[in-house]
Amino acid sequence: MNIHALRLFTKVAELKSVSKAAEVLRISQPAVTIQIRNLEKEVGLTLTESKGRGITLTSNGDFLYKQAQRLFDLERDIENKVAQLKNSGADDLNIAASYVPANFLLPKWLCHYKETYPSVTVNVKTENTQQVIEQLLHYKADLAFVIEENRHHPDLHYQFLMNLEYCFIVPSHHQLAGQTISFEKLMNEPFILREKGSSTKDLLLALCNLHKTPPPKIGMQLYGLNESIRTVAAGFGAMLAPVVAIEDYLYRKQVAQVYVEDIEIKRPTYVCTRKNEIDVLPHVSHFIEVVKDQ
C-alpha cells in the first residue's frame, strides 16, 4: 500500500475536506485528489463521497481511516521511544487506567515497581474504560487496567487479575439505608449515573435489562467516581459503586449500603496489552510481573 497516499487520505478524512487537507499539507488540491483516487484503485474500495463542499467517508473509508490512525500513532510512538533512548537510555512507561484501578490498585503496584526500576519514568492517565482502551489501541499507552470489558477488543490481550465487589449505596440518613429490598424498588430512587463510556454505568443498565426493569431516574450525571461517591455522602441519590472505593465512607457512616435481593456483583479486573507486543517491551512485562507478585 502506498503509505504517502494513505497519509494524505488520513488528513483528508480528519479535516473532511480535500481543499483544507491540501492547504495544511501545502500541496495542490488536484494532487491530493489524484492520490486519493489512486489509493482507492489500489485497495479496490470506494473510500470517500462528496458532501456539500466537503467529503464524507464510506464505511470502508471509515475502517481504513481508523486503521491508518493507529499505524501513524505507532510511527510516532516508535519515534518518541527512540528519542527517549538516545537522550537518557531509559524508556518511559505509559499506563492508562479506569478510575477504580487508578485510585485503589495502582498506587501500591507503582511504589513496588519504582523500588526495582527507579530510572523508568512512569506516566499514568486516568479515564473511563472506553477511553482507556482507545489510549492503548492508539499507542498513547503501553498497557491498560480496566474492569469488566464485556466485548474484548480482538487486537488486545486481556489478563485477569482479580474480582472486585460492587454494591449499591445511599446517604447514611436515607430511608433505605441498611435495608434489603428488590432491585425494582431500588430503581425508583434517583440515581447518580456516570458518563458515557463508564463500565459501571454499562453494568447498571445491563442489570436493568436482565431484570426487565426500566433504568432509574437520572438525578445527576457526573464525570468521575470520586465525585459521584462524595455527592451521595453529601446527601443525594443512590449509586452503584466498588466496595474498595467506599470502605472509608462506610466506616465514617457517611454512606450506607442497600442490600438487593438475589444480587451479588463481582467484577473482573484486567491488565490489557496489545497482542504479540509484551515480549518486545521489557518495561511492560516487568510491571506486569510486579503486579502479579502483589
Automatic annotation (TrEMBL):
Key word Transcription regulation present: yes
Family, as annotated: Belongs to the LysR transcriptional regulatory family.
Domain HTH lysR-type per the UniProt entry, residue ranges: 1-58
InterPro entries assigned to the protein according to its UniProt record, in alphabetical order: LysR_HTH_N, LysR_subst-bd, WH-like_DNA-bd_sf, WH_DNA-bd_sf
Keyword set, alphabetical order: DNA-binding, Transcription, Transcription regulation
Protein name: Transcriptional regulator
GO molecular function, one term: transcription cis-regulatory region binding
Domain of life: Bacteria
Gene3D superfamilies listed in its UniProt record: 3.40.190.290, Winged helix-like DNA-binding domain superfamily/Winged helix DNA-binding domain
Pfam families (UniProt xref): HTH_1, LysR_substrate
